[in-house]
From TrEMBL:
Belongs to the short-chain dehydrogenases/reductases (SDR) family. PANTHER family: SHORT CHAIN DEHYDROGENASE, SHORT-CHAIN DEHYDROGENASE_REDUCTASE FAMILY PROTEIN. Pfam families: adh_short (PF00106). The keyword Oxidoreductase applies. This is SDR family oxidoreductase. Residues 5-179 form the Ketoreductase domain. Transmembrane segments: none annotated. SMART domains: PKS_KR. It comes from Telmatobacter sp. DSM 110680. Gene3D superfamilies: NAD(P)-binding Rossmann-like Domain. SUPFAM superfamilies: NAD(P)-binding Rossmann-fold domains. The keyword Heme does not apply.
Length: 283
């Protein structure tokens, strides 16, 4: 099947980015799969080969914090002389740690990728989408972009910022046929809380003020790891979003994400706070 549509995906070396690349290639899309380290392409190459879609996937180097790489890639995409139907800003990571302990440098590092990286890639691609008169810009946000949870203030604040920016972008660009969309997954089994979690330094200090609470919080996170959902669900939602000519602004994905939003809608605020604190194990 081929539909001659092209998508650019950031952070395609693992997790949602990898699965979305293969899923869209299987639907006939040409995929510009970008990753900051091309040496990590093997997993996607193998998945593409297994699915028989390797010819539809191109690999490009892109660290979303690298302004020169972003400009060069946007230039390359424009010079192809073909439309770009969708951009999926997926690259991201987390800095677990209590708000009190995370340093300015760690917080800025978090924002550089999750917020400024997604914004910079989008702004580099928007002129092309404006000229062609259509395009989908999908931000892989998080339920943590709607609800704050203990232990993830850096991550949540970067995603809250992304939510505000994207909601505004949606209103500004709709007149040009460009749809900005937020996909908000709950907890899914990818590398984000393992290989890609950059713990705040204070989490490693057993005599820190929050040490005992951190230990309780970590054990709760470890216990819940087995309940993390299949990330293919998120790839499928993203694929449906880019195939939809008029997608909504927000898509919460996963039972936990939808439940958190529902509870916040129906519970009194003080009761909702209690639920969040208790479920995190920090007291
Ligand atoms: N899994 C979840 O439960 C969950 C829930 C809500 C939202 N999300 C969001 O989903 C997105 C994808 O994460 P994932 O869960 O699929 O985790 P993942 O498997 O760790 O994938 C993250 C991807 O982002 C890439 N990346 C990190 N920093 C980058 C940078 N500066 N430039 C380019 N690429 C970079 C990683 O590249 P390397 O391979 O080089 O490290 C990796 O390919 C993230 O935005 C995350 O916040 C995840």
């Amino acid at each position: 099947m081929t539909n001659h549509k092209t998508v650019l995906i950031t952070g395609a070396s693992s997790g949602f980015g990898l699965l979305t690349s293969v899923t869209l290639a299987k639907c006939g899309w040409r995929v510009l799969a970008t990753m900051r380290d091309l040496d990590r392409r093997t997993k996607l190459e193998t998945a593409a080969l297994d699915a028989g879609v390797q010819e539809r996937i191109e690999f490009h180097a892109l660290d979303v914090t690298n302004a020169e790489q972003i400009a060069a890639l946007a230039d390359l995409v424009a010079k192809r002389g073909e439309p770009l139907h969708a951009l999926i800003n997926n690259a991201g990571f987390a800095v677990p740690g209590f708000a009190e302990d995370v340093t300015d440098a760690e917080l800025r590092d978090q924002f550089d990728t999750n917020f400024f990286g997604a914004v910079a890639v989008t702004r580099a691609i928007l002129p092309l989408m404006r000229r062609q008169g259509f395009g989908h810009v999908v931000m892989v946000s998080s339920i943590s972009g709607r609800v704050g949870f203990p232990g993830v203030s850096s991550y949540a604040s970067s995603k809250f910022a992304l939510e505000g920016w994207t909601e505004t972008l949606r209103y500004e660009m709709k007149a040009f046929g460009i749809y900005a969309v937020l996909v908000e997954p709950g907890s899914f089994a990818t590398d984000i809380w393992t290989r890609n979690a950059k713990m705040t330094a204070a989490l490693k200090n057993p005599s820190a003020a929050n040490a005992a609470r951190v230990a309780r919080w970590r054990s709760r996170i470890d216990q819940s790891a087995k309940d993390r959902a299949d990330p293919q669900t998120v790839a499928d939602v993203i694929a449906r979003v880019v195939e939809n000519p008029r997608p909504n602004l927000r898509y919460a994905v996963g039972r936990d994400a939808r439940m958190a939003l529902r509870l916040r809608g129906i519970l009194p605020a003080s009761m909702f706070e209690g639920v969040i604190i208790k479920s995190s194990g920090v007291d």
